[in-house]
Write a structure and sequence with these properties.
Layout (H helix, E strand, L loop, with lengths): L1 H21 L1 H9 L4 H19 L5 H25 L3 H19 L4
Helix pairs in contact: 1-2, 1-3, 1-5, 3-4, 4-5
């Protein structure tokens, strides 16, 4: 369960970071949500860092917990932003599933 949930989260983070940097529609969508452009770039970089921390064994537990917390905060913030913006329920449900998978990954974290 750990690797399935973690790989799913990692694939999402990499895909998301890529679209944050290179997809015109995603860039416009993030601006429409009211976030400044520099924040989009920061999030993309932080997502790639989180991927590295989640995948590489040997990081201290406190750093892994910080990565999980950051990804969780991102997912919750995205959920609220999309709900307030009135976006498709499919986006909101996808984010809820990702939050659940993040929880599964964290609770099964090998210590």
């Amino acid at each position: 369960m750990y690797w399935t949930s973690t790989i799913t989260i990692v694939v999402f983070l990499l895909w998301s970071a890529t679209t944050y940097l290179f997809s015109k529609s995603t860039i416009i969508g993030i601006q429409a949500l009211g976030f400044p452009d520099f924040f989009r770039i920061q999030l993309a970089i932080l997502k790639v860092i989180a991927v590295f921390i989640l995948l590489v064994p040997g990081f201290p537990l406190t750093i892994k917990i910080a990565a999980y917390s950051g990804v969780g905060l991102f997912l919750l913030t995205a959920l609220v932003a999309h709900l307030v913006n009135g976006d498709s329920w499919i986006i909101s449900m996808s984010l809820i599933v990702l939050i659940y998978l993040l929880y599964i990954s964290f609770t099964n974290l090998p210590v």
